[in-house]
Design a protein that fits this description.
Helices cover 55% and strands 10% of the residues. The termini are far apart. It is mainly α. The chain is built from 8 helices and 2 strands.
Length: 145
């Protein structure tokens, strides 16, 4: 067997080079619930913008809670994050933040879902959700990120 047929051995590449290689590879992200992509910093910024009280004292406390132990611990943070999404601008900001991170990781296709009832149950109109997501999507078209 010649050297070109050997199985891939990540240990021979080195950690830094492997990380760069993986980051540069084109990717597809399948079945992402966009509300679950909210980062603690944006959650706090939107909470402040919309006067929404959070159960976490700081960005750091919220980030520490991201060490999920079960489905319920994930859902607690998911719904806390969703509670700050009120205006079309909030939904646009959330989706735009995701699109920027995805572009930086060379994600070429993303299958994005959103959870309408999480928002409509709080009195947010579905048109508000769709408007914000659509604006971010239009901004994220190729060659615009």
């Amino acid at each position: 067997m010649n050297a070109h047929c050997l199985p891939f051995d990540p240990a021979r590449i080195g950690r830094e080079r492997l990380q760069a290689l993986v980051q540069s590879m084109p990717k597809a992200e399948l079945h992402i619930h966009i509300e679950g992509s909210l980062e603690p910093e944006l959650i706090f910024a939107l909470a402040k913008r919309n006067n929404v009280a959070l159960a976490y004292a700081s960005v750091e406390a919220l980030r520490a809670a991201y060490a999920f132990t079960d489905l319920q611990s994930f859902l607690d943070i998911y719904y806390a994050g969703a509670s700050v999404l009120i205006t079309a601008q909030d939904f646009e900001d959330m989706a735009w933040a995701y699109f920027r991170r995805a572009a930086a990781d060379n994600v070429r296709r993303a299958e994005i879902f959103f959870d309408p009832q999480t928002h409509t149950e709080r009195g947010v109109r579905i048109a508000t959700v769709v408007e914000g997501l659509a604006r971010a999507q239009a901004r994220a078209r190729p060659n615009s990120v």
